[in-house]
TrEMBL record:
InterPro entries: DCAF17. GO terms for biological process: protein ubiquitination. This is Ddb1 and cul4 associated factor 17. GO terms for cellular component: Cul4-RING E3 ubiquitin ligase complex. PANTHER family: DDB1- AND CUL4-ASSOCIATED FACTOR 17. Coiled coil: none annotated.
Amino acid sequence: MTCPRRKRQTNTTCMLARRSRGFPDYGNILRANMRMLRAIVLQEDRNFIKVWSKTSKSTIAYDSGKIYFENYQSCYSCIDTHPQLLYKLPQRSKSEKIEDALQCSSPLEKSLSTPSDQKPCLLTLTANNWLYRLSAETGETLQGVYLSPNPKFKYLQWDEYQDRFYVKSIQNKVAPFARQAGITQNTVMHLAIFNVFPLEIVGMLEINKTVFGDTVTDVVLTQGTLAVSHSTKTVKLYSFDRILSEFMTKRLALGQPSPFHEGRTVGDAPYGIPENIVIKDCPPVLFEVSCSDHNVQIGGHPWHYIYTPPHKKHRGTYHICSLAEGILAKNGIQDMDCCSLETDLIYLHPDESGRIIHVGPNTVKMLRCVSGLKSDSPSEVVEDFSITTCRSNVAPRVTVTSSGRTVKRISQQLDDDPDQETFRTVEYEDEVDLLALVVTDGEEGEGRACVKLHDNSSGVLLKTIPLEQAWDVTYRNEMCFDKETIVHIEERNNGFHCHVYKLQTEAK
């Protein structure tokens, strides 16, 4: 009989000494470091204290330890005990306004030829169709790519996170007078697809009604699939790799001569990037579903998809079906049955465990899909755990006055009523493996809020963090939980406000 291994406390000094000696098992060291960081965050004598606030007239964004103000013109680092200004870009004209941005981390698995390509950067899209790669630390322009004089590009989105992204144009709409004259417009929009580290052009393509149908309304690129939305409330998925192999006419390289036009350089003004992916025929449909709001999610273990059927009777419900058979799973209809101003949300857990998070005003459920016992039996949706709010007794609908008169209350109290404890948002912090739930409670003052940290595996409450700044539910609020930092961004009538909380040891 073997003796059980004693659980040892990890010593920071020993860990650093082993690292200095070149201890080979990096994965164990990293996991041990994250366990230590989690233990520090959850210590009773440590709490998150508000250390900094700043206002802005334009949108505020937070990403990977950096806060961006004034449309990404200024950047603050949150690494220190108080946010510090990293850089402030020169004033730009209206035509050079930054429309959208993506932050790129450094690649760890490969070495690149140019040192600047190895460093983290900020990709920015300007109003005059320039794509810039800026240093994440200094704001210095590392590279500039001119997209095209037409159409107008406006959105930056990831296809595969930190690997491939795309730039999307605005929709090409026919002017009213042209529509009256019987003029039609087949082009819906354009996409320009890039690889990162190093920045490389994959191609430029046009989404055309002649190929995908007259009902096309929008297109997104996600996880290697082209998702096309239709006005008939249908979403169709196509393989983007197949589109590249069948319809790419020429390969392009930034800064190199264009294979289409002699004397022109790919990515330089005034011509930009030529269209080298010409879809002539509609590729085979991988998956098709009719859903409300063109919202469908695919993932889990085994593969399932989540959607709301486009019928009125299904409003407020989510259906979870097997991707292979297209069959509704057992317990696959999830309904919070809540009466609230904000709808409940359901999404795949970002920890890649295949689980599903269902967030309502007073309940958060952690679900997972389980394969059937037999090969022909449907899968089943089971609940791992649920987290509920602590609510006071709901006021009765019928009350009796002191004189004996019966009074019936007509209005029904909402499940997300500000006077009741309510879940507002749920964040997952992968490095400490914690769920952070923002909870508001109006019993002790309007806008009172706290962040509750729960174990990601069991849902057990581990720590409660009161927020000094009020959480006004009449405005848009956002919370970011990043290890030892909590960032609260709120939008009010007089602009945007950012509040930063840092983990500190409480004074005795």
